[in-house]
Amino acid sequence: MSALAGKHIILGICGGIAAYKSVSLLRLFVKAGAEVQVVITPAGKQFITPVTLSSLSQKPVVGEFFTANTGEWHSHVDLGLWADCMV
Hints:
The chain has about 90 residues and is an alpha/beta fold. The protein contains 3 helices and 3 strands; from the N terminus they run βαβααβ.
């Protein structure tokens, strides 16, 4: 069993060329049994699409404080309490 099995990880992606490596990292975390929530900046979306990230994580990618369609608020406090670590 992996040391990451059952862990909650926030994967933060910003606007840099290393954003491409986040896909490999996400895949490895999920393969190891971790639950991953991706948080991405607007500049990060210029390097990698949220669709790719959400398909790998099986979770919607958080890129805004409010969901455009529903106005739902993404509580950064709840997310911080959920996570075991942030990368």
